[in-house]
Specification:
2 strands; globular; ABC transporter involved in vitamin B12 uptake, BtuC; two-stranded antiparallel ribbon
Amino acid sequence: MASLNILSARRLTLEVRQRVNPIYRLAIILGAASVGLGICVGILLDAGVNLASIYEEFIVFTFFNAAGISTVIVESTPLVLAGLSAALAFRVNFWNIGIEGQVLMGVIGATLIAIFDIGPQSIRIVLMLIFAVGFGALWALPPALLKVRLNVNEVISTLLLNYIAFYFVMNQVYGPWKDPRDKFPHSEKYETFERLPEIGWEQVHYGILVAAVAVVLVWWLIERSRFGIRSRFVGANPRMALAIGLPVSLITASSALFSGGMAGTAGFVIASATEFRLTPAMAAGYGFSGIVIAFLAGNRPIATLVVAFLMGGLYVAGASMKVFYSLPDALVGLIQAIIVLSVTASEFFIRYRLRLARYERS
């Protein structure tokens, strides 16, 4: 009679965490950020940057200096709005990759008011904001309709509209809206009454008030309104939401319009508080940043505010390192990418658990 040999072995298995302790989540994120920072310190040391200088520029100047903090606030203000734009769409599984195009169209709307002197000077800035929100929302409307009516993938449609918006801007700044004074490809500068004023501390402007109001409104919309509760159902299970009678198409399209309007608001803040005109490259990077911010914040408005501030600090620190230590753009971009990817990768360990399981084989 043949004998049966049973061997015991071990293997790694992947388990989904049912619940995650907030402290544990924070510990994983901080650990991932520390790993990323450690890699970046090694790269900077290899590039010849002194360790004390790294501490001074990345930590002390950026977050413990009045000028540094004010610069971070200015940098993070449109990032907050871009993150809110992505969060509004992602909550209902509408993958809005067209934030940059919607930002540009928001600037187009604001610049239209400024160039043609529409409305009295006392309310010109308000009209610019309204048109920026409207143009951004309208640029998100075609992908939303294609999604809910024809089931066209919104990733493709929103991405393609980015290019259309960019080349439309190029047509304007090289054509009818080119600055007649210096003949460079940008629009005329806004008048003083068409700009968001500074609050009196360094270069911080009233765009922070726009961002703060936007955070409160989005928080109420998502967490307290009936629309927010319904959108949560749609995002979790659209088929079940449709089965219980929720207007899934209307909720999805409305979320897409809110997302586009928020991106248009970001364009208004960039144009009226920083650039003071329409330029082709003014929206570059905000789409990617908004997506990353919304992902790391879990599509939550308050967390979006925090993540956007930290990402703004990362950008400011990178810019100062580039100026004071003559680091190439590629190296600064690599450092920023390593830190962002490290923190983003922490979501895997938050959602899943690696476990050494035992099994038997004959």
